[in-house]
Amino acid sequence: MNIELEKLELIKMLVETKDSSIISSIKKIFKAEKKDFWDELSEEQQNILNESLEQYKKGEFTSFEEFIKPHL
Asked: Is the sign of the CA dihedral 19, 24, 29, 34 positive or negative?
């Protein structure tokens, strides 16, 4: 069976159900599938990004235009 047909069948079942526990279970499945890239980063990578964000907030950055000028 192809995936599109299976999705349509699931949609039909979802529309027809009166069981709220089924809907809750489906929501849980989708929420579990969502992964935050942050959680996949190492502690070192997270620290680097946090430091970079703090530097940006303090105005300690160079715009792309300023960066590229000497290379043109």
From this structure: positive
